Every structure is written in structure tokens, then in C-alpha cells.
């Protein structure tokens, strides 16, 4: 990466990636030369999909966005951002209920690494209610998940609850 290349990082669990995430990816990809989707390798969390599965899923649904790269990381997001030459973290904000946690994370990250800023994109109203955990819950009861997920992801989530 050259020094003046603008690299953004969109970190998250993406378990699984939803249409809300994809909307944030599409919109924020226009703000950077390269947008890295950083999938947390959350070992202690009981995730539905393995890190590899989540990376592959996101690669598949973002294949048409040329400046998006998908990687996984361990440890602190700011350390990963530094290692990748990124100075901006991207997060989506759905409702006021997200704000406290997001502010806490952004301020913690900024205290640790003042050279890295967090920017927030407000979630499209169509997806304001949506979260990966809600999707997992609906899927676990055999509910309809087509409204929430990219088409390729629907059968993968269904298969987990067969
Ligand atoms: O999709 P999520 O689960 O809301 O994403 C949360 C994530 C991955 C951005 C956050 O947990 C994170 O950055 N984890 C890595 C560890 C870290 O850097 N912690 C300090 C920030 S409080």
C-alpha cells in the first residue's frame, strides 16, 4: 500500500453478514481507495459461522465491489488497522441504543490510537431494526429470513439450523 492511499476498516463479527452490513459496505467503499472488511476471529464467542465461513460469505456478496478486501483478525481492531495502514474505522449506527456502546468503543480506540478515527454511517431506515443476532433467532425457529440477508447467505444460515 502506498502512503497516500486511503484505507478504511469496517470491523465486525458479521455472524452472518446482513443486508444492513452490506449497505454500510457499499456506501463506505466510496469513501476510500480500499475498504477492508475486518472479521473478528472471536474465539470466546460461540459464533454460528467459523471465521473462514464468514470471510468467504462476505467475499462472495461483495465480489462486485472492486475496492473491498475481506480479512480476519485477532486482538485489537486498532492494532489491525495500524498493521494494514488504515486511519479510519467505519461503523454503522442504527438507533440511539447503539450509541452508547459505539461511543465507548470509539473513545477507547481513540485513546489507544489517536491517529485512528472512527466514522459512523447511519443505517438505511430499511435495515434500522436488523441485527445478526435477530436473524439467528428467527432462523433458529424456522422463520423467514429472506428479507434480512443477501440471497447467497440465506441457504447457508438455513443449513446451520437443519
Ligand atoms: O459486529 P460487532 O460484534 O458489533 O463488532 C464489534 C467489534 C468487532 C468491532 C469489537 O468487538 C472489536 O473491535 N473487537 C476487537 C477487540 C477490540 O479492539 N476491543 C477494543 C474496542 S472496545
Word description of this protein:
Helix content is 39%, strand content 19%. It has 162 residues and is α/β, with parallel strands linked by helices. It has one domain: HUPs (Rossmann fold, 3-Layer(aba) Sandwich), CATH 3.40.50. Strand 1, helix 1 and strand 2 form a beta-alpha-beta unit. 31% of the residues are buried. The model has no long low-confidence stretch (mean pLDDT 95). 4'-phosphopantetheine binds next to strand 1 and helix 4.
CATH class: Alpha Beta
The description of the largest β-sheet is: 5 strands, parallel
From the N-terminal CA to the C-terminal CA, the straight-line distance is 43 Å
Helix content: 25-40%
Mean pLDDT: 95
- Output the CATH topology: Rossmann fold
Order of helices and strands: EHEHEHEHEHH
In CATH, what is the homologous superfamily?
HUPs
Helical stretch tally: 6
Counted up, domains total: 1
| Poorly predicted tracts of residues | none
User: Would you report the number of β strands?
Assistant: 5
CATH architecture: 3-Layer(aba) Sandwich
Approximately what portion of the residues adopt beta-strand conformation? 15-25%
Give the ligands present: 4'-phosphopantetheine
Radius of gyration: 15 Å
Strand order, biggest sheet?
Answer: 3-2-1-4-5
Overall 3D form: globular
Structural class: alpha/beta
Brief synopsis:
The chain is α/β, with parallel strands linked by helices and 162 residues long.
Q: Can you lay out the helices and strands and say which pair or pack?
A:
Elements: E1 7-12, H1 19-29, E2 34-40, H2 51-61, E3 68-73, H3 77-83, E4 88-93, H4 96-112, E5 117-122, H5 132-140, H6 153-160
Parallel strand pairs: 1-2, 1-4, 2-3, 4-5
This protein binds 4'-phosphopantetheine (PNS).
4'-phosphopantetheine is lined by residues 11-13, 40, 76-77, 105, 108-109.
Amino acid at each position: 500500500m502506498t502512503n497516500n492511499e486511503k484505507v478504511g476498516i469496517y470491523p465486525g463479527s458479521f455472524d452472518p453478514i446482513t443486508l444492513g452490513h452490506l449497505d454500510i459496505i457499499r456506501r463506505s467503499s466510496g469513501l476510500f481507495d480500499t475498504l477492508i472488511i475486518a472479521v473478528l476471529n472471536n474465539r470466546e464467542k460461540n459464533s454460528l459461522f467459523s471465521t473462514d465461513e464468514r470471510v468467504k460469505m462476505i467475499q462472495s456478496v461483495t465480489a462486485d465491489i472492486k475496492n473491498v478486501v475481506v480479512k480476519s483478525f485477532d486482538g485489537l481492531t486498532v492494532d489491525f488497522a495500524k498493521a494494514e495502514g488504515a486511519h479510519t474505522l467505519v461503523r454503522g449506527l442504527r438507533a440511539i441504543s447503539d450509541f452508547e456502546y459505539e461511543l465507548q468503543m470509539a473513545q477507547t480506540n481513540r485513546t489507544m490510537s489517536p491517529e485512528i478515527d472512527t466514522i459512523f454511517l447511519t443505517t438505511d431506515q430499511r435495515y434500522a431494526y436488523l441485527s445478526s443476532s435477530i436473524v439467528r433467532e428467527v432462523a433458529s425457529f424456522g422463520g423467514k429470513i429472506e428479507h434480512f440477508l443477501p440471497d447467497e447467505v440465506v441457504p447457508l444460515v438455513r443449513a446451520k439450523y437443519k
